Amino acid sequence: MSTPRRSSQGIGGKDTQQPNKDDALPSELRAKDADAPTTSEVDDYLASKLLHPSFGGDPTFSKGLERANENTIPQIQVSPLQGQFLSVLVKSIGAERVLEIGTLAGYSTSFLSRALPAHGQIDTLEINDLHAKIAQENFLESDLFPFPKIHLGPALSTLKKLQIPEEGPYDLVFIDANKDQIKDYFIESLRLVRKGGTIVVDNAIRKGRIVPSAKDDPTIEVNGLRDLFDWIEKDGGKTVLSSGIQTVGAKSWE
Ligand SMILES: C[S@@+](CC[C@H](N)C(=O)[O-])C[C@H]1O[C@@H](n2cnc3c(N)ncnc32)[C@H](O)[C@@H]1O
């Protein structure tokens, strides 16, 4: 396992800096077509066309973000389109039980919950009291059903104590917290998710820094992610079938 050296992040495990509007646009494309829209502009277009009134277009979801902002909670949640992608995922695999690691103010949780059937279950893990409090207010405001259960405390100890729900294992786990323990979160998630279930790991690219280079100076987040990728490589497909997707857009290259 590699040694942590430095961190580039705020508490949420994501860069707190606002992404530069153009920084995720492939330079090859920018060089060929200086007038090409930025990836954020494309996100705006897609959002204007695709956000559903009960999901990304739900005004209570936006109000939840405002409440988070008023309480100086960092704006490091998924984008509306990413959130709605989680909803699509929940529905397309017919998920009934979802586990989330990293609640923040409950924005992604709201998308996950809204996509579940009424008899479903959603558990979300958060270390920060204020984040949990605001998330709880946001869940009430959005009248979520199933109502997300917040487990306050360090995610790894919560995960180790968490039992497989009586109705059956989780169908989907969304991992979106600190990256330095991500391999452990992943392994615990494997214990809790059903065979054939889905685990989504957010922010696994670090603007490309996961790739070792001659001038390598990995952050603790990059080291954490590399530990996970090494584990998956070593597993050799015995336990998991995985893929990696680079995204661009309002949340930059991730
Ligand atoms: C990127 S934010 C989650 C964003 C949220 N999933 C969303 O998209 O709306 C990460 C969250 O993980 C929490 N977190 C960081 N370290 C943690 C830990 N060790 N245990 C539990 N939660 C942790 C942070 O407090 C923060 O609220």
From TrEMBL:
Region entry Disordered, spans: 1-40
Pfam families: Methyltransf_3 (PF01596)
Coiled coil (residue ranges): none
InterPro entries referenced in this protein's UniProt entry, alphabetically: Cation-dep_OMT, SAM-dependent_MTases_sf, SAM_O-MeTrfase
Compositional bias per record (Basic and acidic residues), positions renumbered to this chain: 20-35
SUPFAM superfamilies: S-adenosyl-L-methionine-dependent methyltransferases (SSF53335)
Amino acid composition bias (Polar residues), ranges on this chain: 1-19
GO MF assignments: O-methyltransferase activity; S-adenosylmethionine-dependent methyltransferase activity
UniProt KW keywords: Methyltransferase, S-adenosyl-L-methionine, Transferase
Gene3D superfamilies: Vaccinia Virus protein VP39
Keyword Transferase on entry: yes
Biological process annotations from GO: methylation
UniProt similarity note: Belongs to the class I-like SAM-binding methyltransferase superfamily. Cation-dependent O-methyltransferase family.
Protein name (record): O-methyltransferase
Annotated source species: Kwoniella dejecticola CBS 10117
